[in-house]
Amino acid sequence: MDLYIDAEQAAAELGISLATLYTYISRRGIRSQKVPGTKKRQYWKADIDRIKSRKGKAQEAPQSGEQQNSQLTLLTPDGPYYRGQSAIALSETHSLEDVAALLWNIDRDSVFGDSVAMAPVELQKLYDVFEGASIADKAIGILPFIERANPRAFDLSHEGMCRTGADLLRWYAAIFAGRDIPHSEPLHIQTAALAGGSHEVADLIRRVLVISADHGFGAGTYAVRAVASTGVTPYRSVLAGFAIAPGRRNVLGHRAAIARLLTELDESPNPEQVIARRMQEGEDLPGFRIPWPYVDGDPRAQRLMEDLQRIRGDHPLFVKAAAAFAYAKNELGRHAGHGMVNDLIARVIGLPSREYLYPLGRCAGWVAHSIEGYMAEDVAQPVADYRGPLPQTR
Predict the structure, then answer these.
(1) CA dihedral 91, 106, 230, 381 (to 10 degrees)
(2) What angle do CA 214, 215, 216 make, to 5 degrees?
(3) Can you give the residue ranges of every domain in the chain?
């Protein structure tokens, strides 16, 4: 008797699509193992039979607002797929503008033209007020003024929101660089200028931005969609994503801890011992939390490590980090995640901060969710299950 079956057989047994099967892996406890020498997985047949035996029986109906439908990003063990196309494969040749247009379902040239959004008259004063603040806080404070200076932002048609999305991405890049106006040149070229501007660095940044564009329904995405559903412009809905970024329970909120760990690795003559000591003393390994549905490490992080090794494999910090990552994987079964690799890339190529790369890419996805959330025409209103004290009767 076969203990495992492949994905196609499992989906057929359950009468579901492959996409739905991937959601079952975590939510319904389907166990699997990797097929040696391939990227495929086999699924524990007993788990498939268990779920199959329950199909058709009464199940608790999902709460209103508990599940949201989307046509944007599918998460699989091989990485995210944007509208059916592999994000990792797209990163080989596409720019963030290309992928944004794909996610927004619009022609790239119709929204990423030469015209740029106007600057608010208060811009220099705002730069002075937010001097020294994080890029997220600067964006939260400045973007509403950019919205007000550009009346076309209030066009909430599909094409209008896409144009605003393009303006928003370019303004995010301008705010980080402290420029008075946004530029229309490719975003990865603009970013590379902050790190010396070499072709190979620009190409790596392009790959990072594409791979970071969207990752399904994280906390930031839920926040963005809920705000967008009320009918605000993308300038304001995307602010919801920035607002939760520093949250201690949010992946983006681990940036400071990841930075400290990388500094330890950089300063230590034995990077493996840094990892071993943290584990021996019961400390966490920030940047090593791998999100569902990745089983054997985050394929986005793995691909970017290969890309970084190709252009900066002899960089002292890369050498130490790679040794530490290998030790954590081989001895502890822990894998460096996408956020950790983003921070490593920023340091190795000489960017001022990782907080520029990842949120710039993710803005494209947040705009896509803003558009989809608003076009759904229903204000997001999850139903709460009250668990507090009940009224007393006489």
Answers:
(1) -60
(2) 110
(3) 69-381
Q: Which residues pair with 75 in a beta bridge?
A: 80
Fold held by 69-381: Citrate Synthase; domain 1 (1.10.580)
Query: Cβ contacts of residue 248 below 8 Å, gap of 6+?
Result: none
Tens digit of each residue's pLDDT (9 = 90 or more) over 9-21: 988 888 888 877 8
Enumerate long-range contacts of 307-312, CB under 8 Å, 24 or more apart.
307/204, 307/207, 308/204, 308/341, 308/344, 308/345, 308/348, 311/200, 311/201, 311/204, 312/348, 312/349
Q: How far apart are CA 228 and CA 222, in angstroms?
A: 10
pLDDT tens-digit profile of 107-160? Answer: 999 999 999 999 999 999 999 999 988 888 999 999 999 999 999 999 999 999
Q: Give me the residue label for tokens 């940047």.
A: 287
Classify 86 as helix, strand or coil: strand
Q: What are phi and psi of 176, to 5 degrees?
A: -65, -40
DSSP letter for each residue of 289-351: PPPTT-SSS-HHHHHHHHHHHHHHTT-HHHHHHHHHHHHHHHHH-----HHHHHHHHHHHHT-
